[in-house]
Amino acid sequence: MRCAITGTAGYVGGSIVRFFRGNGSDVLGLGRRINPATTSHFNYDLTGDPSGIPWSGVDALVHCAYDFRPLRWEDIHRVNVDGSIRLLRTAREHGVKRGLFISSLSSFEGCKSNYGKAKLLIEKEALSLGFAVVRPGLVYGPNAGGMMGTLDRAARASRFLPIIGDGSYPQYLAHCEDLAKLVFLLCQANARVPSRPLSAAHPVAVSLKSLITTLAVRHGNRPVLFPIPWRLLHLGLKTLEALHLPAPFRSDSLLGIVFQNPAPDFSLPEFPDVQFRCFDPKKVLSVERWT
């Protein structure tokens, strides 16, 4: 199988690349940065023209890329929504038989974050084209990146850690290798593509407070957590963004944590062999190699 994958330089995209290559697939990386694990690379971003991508021989497309730089909804829609829909449609027009869009558990009807809303619009287009949609939870694994990497670095850097409200917000975690296996199976020629988004994570939630405490203890840190009301924290992050100053994470990400899907469905009857492992940071975050 030859698979085109966007966002290969990111944590999720890179994990999927390693799994595909480890299972004998050729990978055409699509992005601004090169992942050396890919078979070949084509320089591309979501504002570009996807018709120039070398689609010949590509059997499947996995779309992981998302541009976090736009902050206004108009720009988010133009870059991420319009760009993703253009990419998915062009892949179909060039004969790509199978495709998959990596969405997020932050995406659901009634979600508050712009990230979730954008993903939801792309989901609908992907499903209408006959492509699969996967909504991963908080992705973790060796040398964790993304939001998990941000939390892990914060837990290591200081004993005194801010926490959103009382820290009770549930987090559903997905090991990167389990997610990559599900994506790989969905891209196979004989895969039956579900007509609904698939939620991908271990079904037992971990509270944000418990997660941060566990990460801190792993680094030999005895954390002192001090709660900050989410509205006050959101105002502070919005202010930093307005002043173009660095922030620990985006104000929109905070909305995704506070306003979550109240009832995600983690059933995967089509893929009984895919089981998302329970979170154990001692086993999976401290390992420096792919396991």
Describe the structure.
With 291 residues, this protein is of the alpha/beta class. It has one domain (2-284): NAD(P)-binding Rossmann-like Domain (Rossmann fold, 3-Layer(aba) Sandwich), CATH 3.40.50. The chain is built from nine helices and 13 strands. The strands form four sheets. Strands 3-2-1-4-5-6-11 form a seven-stranded parallel β-sheet, with helices on both faces. Helix 1 (11-22) crosses helix 5 and helix 7 runs antiparallel to helix 8. The longest helix is centred in the N-terminal third of the chain and has 21 residues, at 73-93. The protein starts with a strand and ends in a 7-residue tail after the last helix. The model is unreliable at 287-291 (pLDDT under 50).
List keywords for this structure.
291 residues, alpha/beta, Rossmann fold, 9 helices, 18% strand, globular
Summarize this, please?
By secondary structure, the protein is an alpha/beta fold. The chain has helices at 11-22, 73-93, 114-128, 146-157, 176-186, 208-218, 230-242, 251-258, 281-284; strands spanning 2-6, 26-31, 40-43, 60-63, 98-102, 132-136, 138-140, 160-164, 170-171, 173-175, 198-200, 206-207, 224-228.
Number of domains: 1
N-C termini distance: 23 Å
Structural class: alpha/beta
Radius of gyration: 19 Å
Largest sheet: 7 strands, parallel
Discrete helix count: 9
Q: Strand-residue fraction?
A: 15-25%
Provide the residue-averaged pLDDT.
Answer: 92
CATH topology: Rossmann fold
Secondary structure: helix percent: 25-40%
Described by the principal axes of the CA atoms, the overall outline is globular
Q: According to CATH, what is the class? A: Alpha Beta
CATH homology superfamily name:
NAD(P)-binding Rossmann-like Domain
Low-confidence stretches: 287-291
Q: How many beta-strand elements?
A: 13
